[in-house]
Design a protein that fits this description.
Elements: E1 5-9, H1 11-19, E2 31-35, H2 37-44, H3 50-59, H4 63-66, H5 69-72, H6 74-80, E3 88-92, H7 100-107, E4 112-117, H8 131-138, H9 140-152, E5 164-169, E6 181-187, H10 191-195, H11 202-213, E7 214-227, E8 243-244, H12 245-254, E9 258-263, H13 293-302, E10 307-313
Parallel strand pairs: 3-4, 3-6, 4-5, 6-7, 7-8
Antiparallel strand pairs: 1-2, 7-10, 9-10
Length: 316
């Protein structure tokens, strides 16, 4: 690059010229050269393409995480939802941290990841958790950020490159979190909220909290096991893992959100459950296969569940 300067008259010389009229012609004003090559280089530096950054983060994940990419499609899913570095993103039910381990380095040191769990009153309703586990979930919002920080010590990312972490539970969102999030992700996290809605309004409460935590114009990305529209409402009530697409759209619109778009990224037409089936018969759980390797192979051939991918927005 050629060196480029900006001509600025010397400050002292400017005052001299204003103070007197010399008898002899003055020499040409001394010119100070302000080197802006570095400024130009910074201005011309290409902005990092978020998709390239996401690709690098995904490539650095452990093999067991990468093995799920063909079924979970994290790159096109996050791009469809408009997730970018530096955002504040709410992750509902981070569970084992599959998406958490992607989001923390992708959002980066300027970003913030907020984990959210069920209202504590929901946990006893499952009928499968003992009192010790239920009591542990009482302190999850305080415990989870520290657990994530400790887990990150084994990741191939520098701690200073990871997003800030915090957490809350539905029904107990801190007031200071209102209007702070750019986006929220509900990845396979709606069915139990719908399942127990009649026992405590948990889905209504969750959608209200998401609406409140988002900035105006903020988005919600939903990936959810999808029931065919011809299935009974009882089957698609959430207990079997599946919900109907129109039901999800209606509930979000009732909560004040605008429907933006949908994608076929996570569809799997081979998943055709019968009335007695539930989603966990499929991989990775294979809950019904037990000691039946033939059934297990049959479920593996079907693959992971048929999933809707929907994008909603909080109005500006």
């Amino acid at each position: 690059m050629n060196r480029i300067g900006v001509v600025i008259p010397s400050v002292a010389l400017v005052f001299m010229l204003a103070a007197c009229q010399p008898e002899e012609p003055l020499e040409a004003p001394v010119e100070e050269q302000v080197d802006i090559e570095e400024i130009e280089a910074e201005d011309e530096r290409p902005v990092e393409d978020p998709s390239m950054h996401l690709s690098a983060v995904l490539e650095a994940q452990p093999a067991e995480i990468r093995a799920r990419y063909p079924a979970r499609n994290p790159q096109p899913t996050l791009e469809f939802f408009g997730i970018e570095p530096g955002m504040t993103v709410v992750e509902v039910l981070p569970g084992g941290g599959w998406y958490t381990g992607i989001l923390l380095p992708y959002l980066g040191s300027d970003g913030h990841l907020v984990g959210v769990t069920y209202n504590h009153d929901m946990w006893p309703k499952f009928g499968m958790f003992d009192e010790e586990i239920i009591e542990t979930m009482r302190t999850w919002p305080e415990d989870w950020p520290g657990q994530i920080v400790r887990a990150a010590e084994d990741w191939p990312f520098l701690p200073e490159d990871l997003a800030e972490v915090s957490a809350f539970e539905f029904g107990a969102m801190p007031e200071e979190a209102s209007g702070t999030a750019d986006a929220a992700l509900l990845i396979r996290g709606l069915h139990n909220l719908a399942r127990f809605e009649d026992e405590g309004g948990y889905m209504t409460e969750a959608l209200a909290d998401l609406y409140k935590v988002l900035k105006p114009g903020g988005t919600v990305g939903v990936v959810q096991h999808e029931a065919r529209e011809d299935m009974s409402d009882e089957f698609a009530g959430g207990a079997r893992g599946y919900l109907k697409k129109e039901f999800v759209k209606e509930r979000f619109i009732e909560a004040g959100f605008e429907f933006v778009d949908e994608s076929d990224i996570n569809e799997n037409p081979a998943d055709q459950p019968g009335d007695d089936d539930f989603v966990w018969r499929l991989p990775p759980t294979l809950a019904t296969s037990g000691d039946d390797p033939e059934l297990g192979r049959e479920m593996e051939e079907i693959g992971e569940s048929h999933r809707m991918t929907l994008k909603f927005r909080k109005p500006e």
